[in-house]
Write a structure and sequence with these properties.
Blueprint: H1 3-22, H2 34-45, H3 50-67, H4 73-86, H5 92-105, H6 112-128, H7 132-142, E1 152-159, H8 166-180, H9 185-201, H10 207-215, H11 219-237, H12 244-259, H13 261-269, E2 288-292, H14 298-307, H15 317-321, E3 332-333, H16 362-367, E4 377-378, E5 417-425, H17 427-446, E6 454-462, H18 479-487, H19 489-494, H20 498-507, H21 521-532, E7 535-540, E8 542-548, E9 556-560, E10 563-572, E11 591-600, E12 606-621, H22 640-645, E13 649-661, E14 664-676, E15 679-683, E16 687-693, E17 700-711, E18 720-726, E19 729-735, E20 744-749
Parallel strand pairs: 1-2, 1-5, 5-6
Antiparallel strand pairs: 3-4, 7-20, 8-9, 8-17, 10-12, 10-16, 11-12, 11-15, 12-13, 13-14, 15-17, 16-17, 18-19
Helix pairs in contact: 1-2, 1-3, 2-4, 3-4, 3-5, 4-6, 5-6, 7-9, 8-20, 9-10, 9-11, 9-12, 11-12, 12-13
């Protein structure tokens, strides 16, 4: 195919992506997301098309900047960066133009400046040391051992078998296994060596002979080439003033050692091989582990296993024997101070004291001073301890967007691990994920500092039941996915369209041959999402305190993420001293409720409002209602940023209105809506309430008489109490810190919320 035909074909594909982004109405879901995927597949099959595609994308970006078509900037920029990460042989002029374009975007508001800054930093690294982005990405995702770049990543794919059909689970598992069978560590090391040499040497590299030689190299030689390339690239990238000439000399020496001096000199002088199509170097998909969601503690257990050093890995059967729920009280050790007899002079030391004794002698125990009532230090088992040797060198972190609210960094601790947790399901699955996230953050303050030692990134792919199987009452199970699609148009076109493709894959008969691994669309989209989706959208988690009618039953507390529904039960609870209702008086539907909430005023003050009314149902939603959106907005609801910045509940009360006429007394219902951050609801006429959290039938509470909903605070924030001695008396002094920080769960998208 001639160059003009190649450019015309790529231009048509790019224009199809732009039309998809600019479409006002909903397009066919079967076609959404396919244009971007087919565009990347074209350059993957023929890497010589990469410079042409980069030039076209850059031209469209500059055109969108000039005409102020901001809604296409972030999708095109992500597409461009994905090509630059994998490609070799891109002219320096295109890198410079792309970098200059990203620096101009820094003057725009978020999220454009945020995404542009991340891209500019990566481009600067790639321009200085070619091939760095590809090398670091593969090393981290495939967990290859490297002392100079010790970072590791893993994608945890969680599917709840109660919410997703077994056929979908089996289809996804087969596709993951088929793709990872071809991604051995040896294959990944070959890709890194070949990509680094081609990126640095350019036309002087005999790509076909190089890859064939690496394919036939024994493992020990391949490991030696791999470590030599990684050492050369990483040492140059970490220098204040990188020396590209020195890097080129080192890589040329490695190139000659792989091919031999004769073949290497032939490649440098040129020949017929230069006219051949360069062989493709694939970018392996990340290491993905498949998990069936069983309980909210499973996420914590999997992250603990991921953080263990490889030398301490054990079989999965040992997991049940570990006390992962906490330590027994007898494992707490008191802090002991021992009287020191050391004068500090080296010659006073007795001979043979180079090593500490295994246990103190009885004489030392008698003269030792045991400090009672001191600080107790928890003794962790050896397989749970995180040694300080895990702390890697600073400055080597791969940028993954801004922090996702996953805990503060500990002093002197570097995050060597990145856990990308991807969940499939509907709003019910996100509610269960919120429970696990809250439990994980709570553990950090009580037992085990987990999240400060790893970067926790959360991703979500909506998978609903097929429409023919969905009941009318379950049509709202995708509210959060719809909100993410409105906030981020590229998420809507790329991720929200995967559900039909996943169901189509589940309906296909399983093919155990090797042909089923050709162009796995779903796996490619998942890979693109977890790599480029670095901008989180935060969702407030709410706490509900529940009081039951049975006084012998202790009050309970739970959390919810998207919705809390309150229904009226038909049964009543006995109340002492209650007067019997008069005959002939119509009670009417619903129940008498007392509602107390805080109303926000224009002066940014709050006023407490208390009202009593008869209602049949209350619905508390954390997402803005559709009727609050401004007409004509095709990208995001105008209240999206407002709701995520402030803690706000959208309350809908179905009130019973009583009216009298000649025909008698009648009842009608009217819906009242208001917004608040805190609310208390109590039944007044012996009618019991039923609570449904996050639309999940397994999270139902019955026989409730009172509930209180407040924003869930961070487990480590809030007021702290300490006892301070005062002259003449002991008085408890409450040391109040700042206002409790709300606990928000981040879900990664491509751009965050577009204003």
């Amino acid at each position: 195919m001639e160059s003009s035909d190649v450019e015309l074909d790529l231009q048509r594909s790019v224009q199809a992506v732009l039309r998809e982004l600019s479409a006002q109405g909903p397009a066919l879901q079967s076609n959404q997301g396919m244009w971007r995927w087919s565009l990347h597949k074209k350059v993957e099959r023929d890497p010589s098309k990469s410079p042409t595609l980069v030039r076209i994308l850059l031209r469209e970006l500059e055109k969108a900047e000039g005409e102020d078509f901001r809604h296409v900037i972030i999708p095109l920029l992500h597409t461009l960066m994905y090509v630059l990460t994998k490609a070799t042989g891109i002219p320096e002029e295109l890198y410079q133009r792309t970098y200059a374009f990203c620096t101009r975007l820094l003057t725009l508001p978020a999220p454009y400046c945020t995404v542009a800054l991340d891209c500019a930093i990566r481009l600067k690294t790639e321009m200085t040391v070619p091939g760095t982005l590809y090398q670091r990405l593969v090393i981290a995702e495939q967990n290859l051992e490297s002392e100079l770049y010790p970072y590791q990543e893993r994608v945890f794919l969680f599917v709840d078998p109660e919410l997703v059909s077994p056929s979908v689970c089996s289809a996804l598992l087969l596709e993951l296994e088929a793709a990872q069978e071809q991604q051995t560590p040896e294959a990944c090391m070959r890709h890194i060596v070949a990509h680094a040499l081609e990126a640095a040497l350019g036309q002087a590299c005999w790509a076909g002979a190089l890859q064939k030689k690496l394919q036939n190299s024994p493992r020990h030689a391949l490991v030696r080439y791999f470590h030599a390339v990684v050492t050369a690239v990483e040492q140059t990238a970490c220098e204040p003033n990188p020396n590209r000439e020195g890097l080129l000399e080192q890589l040329e020496e490695i190139y000659r050692s792989v091919l031999g001096p004769v073949a290497a000199s032939r490649g440098r002088c040129g020949g017929d091989h230069v006219q051949e199509r360069p062989p493709s170097i694939p970018l392996p998909s990340p290491y993905i582990t498949f998990h069936l969601w069983t309980d909210k503690e499973q996420l914590w257990k999997e992250l603990v296993l991921f953080l263990r050093p490889r030398s301490q890995l054990r079989l999965s059967v040992d997991l049940e024997a570990l006390d992962l729920q906490g330590l027994a009280p007898d494992r707490r050790l008191a802090r002991v101070s021992v009287l020191s007899t050391d004068s500090g002079i080296e010659r006073d030391l007795p001979t043979g004291t180079d090593e500490l004794p295994d246990a103190p002698s009885p004489e030392l125990e008698r003269v030792g001073l045991q400090r009672k009532g001191g600080i107790k230090k928890r003794a962790w088992p050896p397989y749970i301890l995180m040694p300080s040797s895990w702390d890697g060198p600073p400055g080597l972190h791969r940028r993954t967007g801004w922090p996702s609210g996953d805990g503060e960094l500990l002093p002197g601790v570097s995050r060597l691990h990145t856990a990308r947790v991807l969940v499939l399901g509907d709003d019910r699955m996100l509610g269960r994920l919120a429970q696990a996230y809250h439990s994980l953050r709570k553990r950090d303050t009580q037992k085990f500092c987990l999240t400060p030692r790893l970067s926790l990134q959360l991703y979500y792919i909506p998978v609903m039941a097929p429409k023919k199987l969905v009941a009318p009452m379950n049509s709202e199970l995708g509210e959060l996915a719809a909100f993410l699609g409105c906030a981020d148009p590229w998420y809507e076109r790329t991720v929200n369209t995967l559900c039909p493709a996943i169901h189509k894959l589940a309906e296909m008969p399983p093919n155990l041959g090797t042909s089923r691994t050709v162009d796995p669309f779903i796996l490619d989209v998942i890979t693109y999402y977890v790599r480029m989706g670095t901008q989180p959208i935060y969702f407030q988690i709410y706490t509900v305190k529940i009081l039951f009618s049975d006084q012998s039953q202790d009050p309970t507390e739970d959390i919810f993420l998207t919705e809390l529904k309150v229904k009226i039960q038909d049964s009543k609870f006995p109340k002492d001293g209650s007067t019997p209702r008069r005959r002939g008086v119509a009670e009417g539907p619903g129940a008498e409720l007392s509602i107390c909430y805080q109303k926000d005023l224009l002066s940014h003050r709050t006023r407490e409002v208390t009202l009593s009314l008869r209602a049949t149902e209350l619905v508390l939603k954390t997402l803005p209602a559709n009727d609050t959106e401004v007409p004509g907005s095709t990208h995001c609801p105008p209240t999206a940023a407002h709701v995520t910045d402030r803690t706000c509940l959208n309350v809908s009360v179905t009130e019973v209105v009583k009216s009298s006429n000649l025909a008698g007394r009648s009842f009608s219902t009217v819906t009242n809506n208001f917004r608040t951050a805190n609310i208390q609801i109590q039944s007044q006429d012996q009618r019991l309430l039923t609570l449904l959290l996050d639309k999940d039938s397994q999270r139902t509470f019955r026989d409730v008489v009172r509930l209180e909903v407040t924003p869930c605070p961070e487990p480590c924030s809030g007021a702290q109490k300490s006892k301070a001695p005062w002259p003449g008396l002991q008085k408890e002094v409450e040391r109040t810190t700042a206002k409790p920080k709300p606990l928000q769960m981040p879900i990664n998208t491509f751009s965050g919320i577009i204003q």
